[in-house]
Amino acid sequence: MSFTVLGTGMYVPDRVVKNDELANFVDTSDEWIQQRVGIRERRVCTNQTAIDLACEAAVRALENSGVQPQELDLILAATVSSEMVSPGVAQMVQHHLGATCMAYDINAACSAFIFLLETAAGYFARGKAKKVLIVGAERMSRIVDWEDRSTCVIFGDGAGAAVLGEGDGYLDSAFCVKGGDDVIKIPQFIGKSPFFEKEQESPYIHMNGQETFKFAVSSICDDIRALLQRQNLTADDIAYIVPHQANKRIIASAANRLHLPIEKFYIDIERYGNTSSASIPIALDEMNRAGLLRRGDLLLLTAFGGGLASATCLLRW
Ligand code: UT7
User: Are 260 and 241 in contact (CB under 8 A)?
Assistant: First the structure.
């Protein structure tokens, strides 16, 4: 027993920030951002927190699935940008919904949504859950350095969620973790202990873009090839590949290496930028509501990012 996706939801804040507006803060241009990353605009919070976004996406996913909060056995959430270290996003979503089930967060940066699916699959396999809500929610605008043009132009705020119920839709997964903080890190506030001797690093995203780019392309290609081979499938059997939306050129490079048409990949980065753990569930919700997904379709979800980590799964819709 694994699970099937019963419904999806997403929420992004109203404020749209187009590339031109960013040129007011940093030395950049609409042309550079569109060509090098593929983003036209992103959403940015003006008065909502990551938890607010998570709660709204969760409510929409429950509505879409027809599941009541009291039916939930588990809520799992992921974030790297919540204002709150504790309570976790999942616990605040539980509170907002008036649910009573177990709830906790997982930290796996941009690939976290697939780690949430994998964790949920374990609960279904052990018969410990019949209905699970998973949420990725980010206010990335809180943790980018708005004076660093190599990061502040690429991220956006948003949340995505899915409700899972018993079924046999989670078919396989592949993970690659290369732990280390030399390529991407987000240091926390170091505290005010009079005994601690290390200096505060700036508490924003530090990212070596090119190293991340290389890791992303090679790991998602390796993961996708491994899953297809293990499941005796070819790309023709797959309705859509839903990639983490970090850079359109990463997706194009992966498509090229895998000899796949770019149309096989769902792409919405031009409207939201990189929303980290929310990027895949936002894409899934858009596809779901646009009627792109038919029951029985095979999907590959593939993500990469801080950790470093990559994660790919094969899902039957
Ligand atoms: O979700 C987490 C995972 N993150 C990612 O997957 C990010 C992966 N990496 C990337 O998407 C790309 O590496 C970036 C978008 C971050 C950067 O693009 P790039 O093509 O790798 O640029 P680069 O770092 O090689 O920089 C090329 C030039 C540099 O100028 P010089 O040294 O050649 O004069 C940068 O200073 O582009 C410059 N540059 C910019 N120019 C205008 C960097 N950022 C900007 C900017 N506007 N926003």
Answer: yes
What total number of domains does the chain contain?
2
Catalytic residue among 19, 244, 288, 313: 244
Q: Are residues 129 and 204 in the same domain?
A: no
Mean pLDDT of the chain: 97
**By residue range, what is the domain housing residue 71?**
2-168
Binning pLDDT at 50, 70 and 90, where does residue 277 land?
very high
Query: In terms of domains, do 120 and 269 share one?
Result: no
Task: Determine the distance separating the centroid of ligand 1 and the alpha carbon of 274, expressed in angstroms.
Answer: 14
Active site residue 244: yes
Q: Residue 1's pLDDT band (boundaries 50, 70, 90)?
A: confident
| Residue in 19, 64, 247, 274 annotated catalytic | 274
Strand-pair category, 131-139 with 74-78: parallel
- What's the rounded Cα separation, in Å, for the pair 298 and 165? 17
Whether 77 has a pLDDT exceeding 90, the answer reads yes
Q: How far apart are CA 161 and CA 308, in angstroms?
A: 23
> Is there a single domain that holds both residue 127 and residue 195?
no
Structure confidence at residue 21 (pLDDT): 97
Instruction: Give the other-Cβ count within 10 Å of 228's Cβ.
Output: 18
Instruction: Sort strands 74-78 and 102-106 into parallel, antiparallel or unpaired.
Output: parallel
